[in-house]
TrEMBL record:
<dbReference type="InterPro" id="IPR029052">
    <property type="entry name" value="Metallo-depent_PP-like"/>
</dbReference>
<feature type="disulfide bond">
    <location>
        <begin position="128"/>
        <end position="133"/>
    </location>
</feature>
<dbReference type="GO" id="GO:0005764">
    <property type="term" value="C:lysosome"/>
</dbReference>
<dbReference type="GO" id="GO:0046513">
    <property type="term" value="P:ceramide biosynthetic process"/>
</dbReference>
<keyword id="KW-0443">Lipid metabolism</keyword>
<dbReference type="Pfam" id="PF00149">
    <property type="entry name" value="Metallophos"/>
</dbReference>
<dbReference type="GO" id="GO:0006685">
    <property type="term" value="P:sphingomyelin catabolic process"/>
</dbReference>
<feature type="binding site">
    <location>
        <position position="366"/>
    </location>
    <ligand>
        <name>Zn(2+) 1</name>
    </ligand>
</feature>
<dbReference type="GO" id="GO:0005811">
    <property type="term" value="C:lipid droplet"/>
</dbReference>
<comment type="function">
    <text>In the lysosomes, converts sphingomyelin to ceramide. Plays an important role in the export of cholesterol from the intraendolysosomal membranes. Also has phospholipase C activities toward 1,2-diacylglycerolphosphocholine and 1,2-diacylglycerolphosphoglycerol. Modulates stress-induced apoptosis through the production of ceramide.</text>
</comment>
<dbReference type="InterPro" id="IPR011160">
    <property type="entry name" value="Sphingomy_PDE"/>
</dbReference>
<feature type="binding site">
    <location>
        <position position="185"/>
    </location>
    <ligand>
        <name>Zn(2+) 1</name>
    </ligand>
</feature>
<feature type="binding site">
    <location>
        <position position="332"/>
    </location>
    <ligand>
        <name>Zn(2+) 2</name>
    </ligand>
</feature>
<comment type="subunit">
    <text>Monomer. Interacts with SORT1; the interaction is required for SMPD1 targeting to lysosomes.</text>
</comment>
<dbReference type="InterPro" id="IPR041805">
    <property type="entry name" value="ASMase/PPN1_MPP"/>
</dbReference>
<feature type="disulfide bond">
    <location>
        <begin position="466"/>
        <end position="470"/>
    </location>
</feature>
<dbReference type="GO" id="GO:0046872">
    <property type="term" value="F:metal ion binding"/>
</dbReference>
């Protein structure tokens, strides 16, 4: 996320926005946008021309709520709500057992956060003041600075197309794959200068590039927070007309039609989510996680199960449970980063359908990590894990990479669990690739394993070692598949340690 809003402290700005909000005419839309822009500059969040980044499209009440809180506009983004589970009792839990030796496996290619920068310019400044560098407008590097590299740069830069193509060529050679999950964030981080036309052309170019490199393989995409403009702006289906997401979902449905059946395209056009049977016995559900995100200002109007997506998910899971079908869930933003109510409801669903959901796959953080889910009654028995795969892009300060999941295969009675995974990294310095993996997850007992994880989390390019409070914070977040304010830390550590972690995070 770029330019999140630490603006609450500026009293003058709050007053100005408050005044703008108290008048209701459409003219104020302009005025609020201007005030937001000024606030951005005053607080030195970014260069002047980067600041407004599309906030002018917000309604005054929304911008108000963003800046001054509950006193202005409707503000129900934090209001609690509950989904309804069917009255059918949860089937008895059977502990997972590893598949028989030699049982078939599926190889799943996983791509996320490509972030292609059309204006990437070799030799331009990699250390500019804007949120995104390595472009002509970043200017030339000064004598001390680095210039943007040919394949990419260790800095706040996205990727030139050649690196995306090279990655796809490499992935095609590393196959064969059984199918592909692709969890979004196609455009670059130049969120202040994006247009709908550009976003759509990037969506089209990258979709066709994937298609041409991977042939007739089925690719199951999910929508990232950068697909829209303004970034993170995903109006739920109650918004109609030009403000709606129709411009985006319609093009997605056209471009993704070779991969998805008509019924899936229908829900994609409606709310940006869908379900497809991958093979007999395995179904994928692609969620639009933008409906869980606090950065999606539209949820200030109404944040209760946007587009009825979670209620729809329950319906799909119940039908799968009755058929004995297993379900993989894919999405962009990991559930532990969602608005509290959304994430608690999702956690509840994962608990109820733990026998059916046998894989959860996300991206967005650009890091190689995961989030754990525990049984709600005792919070001690693990019921699931959301894998978070590293990004294709270098943003920020990373090697490019992609992920492979080895999944219990296509045979009768298969668990469809993830058995192992590999990450392929393009070492920008050495420009070679190597598969890597962490053998066991015993971070707390063995610091070497944790430090190995820390290294791989950053795809082989770390700036500092992670010890003490940093380590505690990371382990806590890995244990939090739900937005629950570090309750998992209380179970792990006592008193002063928790205080130390809270201090680090706040
Ligand atoms: Zn991203
Ligand atoms: Zn993202």
């Amino acid at each position: 996320m770029v330019l999140s809003s630490p603006m609450y402290s500026d009293v003058t700005v709050e007053r100005a926005v408050g005044e703008a909000c108290n008048q209701t005419s459409d003219v104020n839309e302009e005025r609020v946008a201007r005030v937001v822009g000024e606030a951005c500059i005053r607080l030195h969040l970014a260069e002047e021309r980067v600041c407004p980044f599309g906030l002018s499209l917000l309604w005054p009440s929304e911008a108000c709520a963003l800046l001054v809180g509950r006193s202005c506009g409707r503000f129900d983004i934090y209001a609690p709500w509950n989904v309804t589970l069917p009255r059918i009792p949860k089937p008895p839990v059977t502990p997972p057992t590893p598949p028989k030796p030699g049982a078939p496996q599926s190889k799943v290619l996983f791509l996320t956060d490509i972030h292609w920068d059309q204006e990437y310019a070799v030799g331009s400044s990699a250390d500019c003041k804007d949120p995104l560098c390595c472009r002509n407008e970043s200017g030339p590097p000064s004598w001390r600075q680095r210039g943007a590299g040919f394949w990419g740069s260790y800095s706040k830069c996205d990727l030139p197309l050649r690196t995306v193509e090279n990655m796809l060529e490499n992935a095609a050679r590393t196959g064969p794959w059984d199918w592909v999950y692709w969890t979004g964030d196609i455009p670059a981080h130049n969120v202040w200068s994006q247009t709908r036309k550009q976003q759509l052309s990037e969506l089209t170019v990258i979709t066709r590039l994937i298609h041409s490199h991977l042939g007739n393989l089925k690719v199951y995409p999910a929508i990232g927070n950068h697909e829209s403009t303004p970034v993170n702006s995903f109006p739920p289906p109650f918004v109609h007309g030009n403000r709606s997401s129709r411009w985006l979902y319609d093009t997605m449905a056209e471009e993704w039609a070779p991969w998805l059946p008509e019924q899936a395209l229908k829900t994609l056009r409606h709310g940006g989510f869908y379900t497809v049977e991958v093979q007999p016995g395995l179904r994928v559900v692609s969620l639009n996680m933008n409906f869980c995100a606090r950065e999606n200002y539209w949820l200030m109007v109404n944040s209760t199960d946007p587009a009825n997506q979670l209620q729809w998910l329950i319906h799909i899971l119940q039908a799968s449970e009755e058929k004995g079908e297993r379900v993989h869930i894919i999405g962009h933003i990991p559930p532990g980063l969602c608005l509290s109510s959304w994430s608690w409801n999702y956690y509840h669903i994962v608990n109820r359908y733990e026998g059916t959901i046998t894989g959860q796959f996300f991206g967005h953080t650009h890091m190689d990590e995961f989030q754990m889910f525990y049984d709600e009654a005792t919070m001690t028995r693990a019921v699931g894990v959301a894998f978070i795969a590293p990004s294709v892009t270098t943003y920020v300060n990373l090697n490019p990479g992609y992920r492979v999941y080895l999944v219990d295969g296509n045979y009768k009675g298969s668990s469809r669990f993830v058995l192992d995974h590999e990450t392929y990294i393009l070492n920008l310095t050495e420009a070679n690739r190597q598969p890597e993996g962490v053998s066991s997850l015993t971070f707390l007992r063995d610091d070497r394993v944790f430090q190995r994880f820390w290294y791989l989390r950053h795809k082989g390019h770390v700036s500092e070692p992670c010890i003490d409070a940093c380590k505690t914070t990371v382990v806590c977040s890995l244990r939090s598949g739900r937005y629950d304010e570090l309750q998992q830390c209380d179970l792990l550590f006592r008193g002063d340690m928790v205080a130390a972690v809270r201090k680090t995070l706040c």
